[in-house]
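QA checklist item 7 of 12: single-chain prediction sanity check.
[x] sequence parsed
[x] length recorded as 446
[x] structure emitted
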Amino acid sequence: MSLKQIIIRVRTSFWYLPAVYGIIAFILAIISMVIDRYMMNQGFSTKIPNVFLSDTDLAQTILSSLSTSLLTMTTITFSSILVVLTTYLSQFSPRTLQNFITDHHTQRVLGIFIGGFIYTVILLLLVRKNDTNAYFIVPTFAILVSIICLGMFVFFIHHVTTWIKVSNLIFNITQKTIQSIHGHFVDEEVYKADPPWENWEYEEIQTIEPYILNSKRSGYIEYIEFDKMITQAMNDNVIIKLEQDLGKYVDQDTPLFSIWRLKDNSIAAQYLSFITISSDQEPVQDVHFGLQKLVEIALRALSPAINDPYTAINSINHLAKILSLLGKKHLATPFHYDQHSQLRLIFEKPRFEDYLYESFYQIRHYARDDVSVMASILKALAFIAHGNSPFIKEAVWEFAFYILEGLNEIKWLSKDRVYLNKHLKDIARACLKKKKEKQLLLTEKR
């Protein structure tokens, strides 16, 4: 595992920031005690107001009370986190737990509480009765730290009440997915197509049997280091094809790479180090995972136990926002070249039609007789087509007929049918198919 993969794994873990804050608090406690002893030994005690100084007994009492209070606040914080996690599990989706746990505000508040507790406990340990000077200023420092922790506790209560709202969770998932899209796809306007003659190598290797490199462990593909993979392929003078996509589950002996022109099979295993396989899905590079979480929230909201169609509609609106952005990105190019314009990596990405289908097919099935949800899907399709390229408009137009097939299976009441037809007409206009809009309309069932 490379250093970058280790850093990503550490930063996405729950203990990362609390551990950092705990170490910083330990160091600050030592520094505070050194400053305290230096000031007292140099005679600064006469220049400091007595209200800020404490004798040994008072210092130990203050530090003991503060450490107990901070430990109690930390316990309450843990309990609040568990309440949120339980709500996420029962109301939204198990996959959404990561969004709250890995949120830096949550980790930072917990880290400050743990750091404050460690700070006061270390000071309590260092305050001794046999010191040459009987007065201490560190209890004042500890009180200031406790006031900061109290302010963070109020902030955390507000943070929890905000995060427990499903609308905020949906927004957060959407923002993370959009960041992933911007980080791993180029705009269609910026992309320059490769000349046809640069793909001759791919045509040539089709006739050659590749070396198949299998996975050595099971789990989900979390992260792929494309740049290092291309550099290594250039050094080995090989062409590699990545057989599995991000977020896919692989087992031992699942094919991961096809390698052409490999002279020494013993060096093939080094390519496995460029892929991070985790026991759980992590949204580092995986756009599919963000879409999956929004779909799961919508499906859970549509279940008879919850029956919250407006949450499903909110999820559909954000799915439309993500898909509209994806439509403006270049998704299809599977070829990656080195600095000498030689083919090194083949990685076939999903098409826009695949993203579109995966986002709506389950919602369409479970909400097929809900007018409001089906209307929101139609509005989402019109939103995606509006302002996108002719290619995206055509994909949306074809997908709209798939939705229409499902709509035709239900016997709608007259007002419902008029309402749905209105949104179907909006899709036709957004896709520049005004003349063909009659093909996309619901007809009355006899």
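[x] summary fact logged: Residues 100 and 106 are 7 Å apart (CA to CA).
[ ] second reviewer sign-off
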